[in-house]
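Feature request disguised as a bug report, sorry. It would help if multi-protein outputs had a clear separator. Right now it looks like this:
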Amino acid sequence: MAKVILWGSLSRLAEGRKEFDIDAPNIDRMLTALGEAAPKLKPILEKGVTVSVDGTLYRLDRFQKIEPDSEVFILPKMAGG
């Protein structure tokens, strides 16, 4: 299972929980499972977040593969400029 870590204030919406072990083949399924595990996070996840998988940032590639031993960070949506 991938280790999923909530960054910054996102853990507040998961009742203080910062880490989850989630079994999912890609970012899309991982975000769905995370929303089910922490329902208050679901609106933020649907609105958009930045996801780091093993050190690489993804904003739009929801079908990026996640390996079972991946380390995943969920960050508030990052604006570019």
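(second protein starts here, but nothing in the output says so)
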Amino acid sequence: MFKHRIELEPDDFYINEQGYKVFTEKYHLKRGYCCKSGCKHCAYGYDKNTDSFK
């Protein structure tokens, strides 16, 4: 399934201390779905450890 590309804005992510790009809750809401990767700022309440939504 092809997902359309979302243009990134400055407040869609930040770079953490290790140099990784971390997406914000705003970005996740703009994307419109949960990827079930256990993202730090998941807007959908997904818990990777239990594979469930809060």
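Even a blank line would do. Unrelated, but nice: The first strand starts at residue 13 and ends at 15.
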